[in-house]
Amino acid sequence: MQVSEGQWQDFSPKRVHGIVRERMTPRMGIYWTDFLLSLTGGALAFAAVGLLGPFTVLGMAAFIVSVLALYRAAVFIHEIVHFRSRRQFDRFRVVWNVLCGIPLLIPVFMYECHAEHHSRRWYGTRQDAEYLPLAKMRPRDIVGILAAVPLLPLFGPLRFGILTPISWLVPPLRTYVYTNLSTLKLDVEYRGRPPNGPGERRSWMLQEAGCLLVFTAVVSAALLGWIPWLLLMQWYLTYLSIALLNTLRLLGAHRYLADEDGSSIVEQMLDTYNYPRRRWLGECWAPVGLRLHALHHLLPGLPYHAYQRAHRDLVTQLPSGSPYFLTTSPGLWTSIGTLWRNASASAADRPAEAPHALPPSAMAEPRDGEPTNRPG
């Protein structure tokens, strides 16, 4: 797809915002229903695995359902952080943290740094915890990220079950834990910040205490024989599967071609992918709207439940040569393959592969009867 100079100049987030303005209001009923159904369904499916037998067809089906449902429930942390300044999310934030974040050992404060990932100054830089210039690195760095996935389920128990109580007694360790081990991040060298002020310090410590309580209760119950060790293995495999899905999603979320100078909103959009095709499959590995990730970087204040309609608004109202259409990927494996080839080319000092794009008619999901071809 060719984009003319005029179309580049005419494209602006302000104009896009005008097209979807009416869709910018979060509908809390959808948030509550989706989250509670996902969490409940995941918990019931997790329990059903043991009842049905982990090696039976029904047991394995229940395992898959538990992974996908719990993954979806956990990803609501992304929406919570984006709307943390809105009072209507205060109760949702607390309930999510109590029912999901703390039991999964991913309390909400671990994702407070996400704003840096949308900053024009910090996106793609060393101050962006969720970004590495993977397309300019070596393929072995991508392999290293995938190889670390089996260790991810052990991070929470180590961070909150062991290091947290020790750090309360050893101030230097406390500083290290806050700056190095208190962020959900892709870049392991990222350094975060300690809590800012007494209010935030109390909030973080309260969440840490909740996680420590969960860890202590589970370990004690296992040692007393109240929880079978096979159930702990199932939990490890569930967490491992969620971590693998999320890692693959991260590898396919961006082109990872940004430089260290920050990026404008449009540059962030062009470094990010949309996956409008195979909608329901995409919701499995990129739930809560994350399959339209370029749209999210273009309009970070858009609630997840409005993504699909907002995307169709843009498809039908933007001109055919709009840069927005350059964000579309045919599929996750295509994007990861492109990332791998670009990393290989970087290692061999060759130019990166050009972005792939689908025609505008493929940008919208055609299954619910709405037109997908643009007028004119």
What can you see in these coordinates?
The protein has 376 residues and is mostly helical. The protein has one domain (5-347, 358-362). The chain is 56% helix and 0% strand. It is built from 15 helices and no strands. The protein has helices at 5-10, 13-19, 28-52, 57-82, 90-101, 139-147, 152-169, 171-180, 197-223, 229-253, 265-270, 279-285, 293-298, 307-317, 332-347. The longest helix has 27 residues, at 197-223. The radius of gyration is 21 Å and the shape is globular. The model is unreliable at 356-376 (pLDDT under 50).
Number of helices: 15
- Sequence of secondary-structure elements: HHHHHHHHHHHHHHH
Low-confidence stretches at least 5 residues in length (pLDDT < 50)? 356-376
Q: Please indicate the count of domains.
A: 1
**Structure classification:** mainly alpha
Percent helix, as a range, is 55-70%
Number of beta-strand segments: 0
Instruction: Describe the main β-sheet briefly.
Output: none
Compute the average pLDDT.
Answer: 90
Distance between the termini: 17 Å
Strand % is: under 5%
Q: How large, in whole angstroms, is the Cα Rg?
A: 21 Å
3D shape? globular
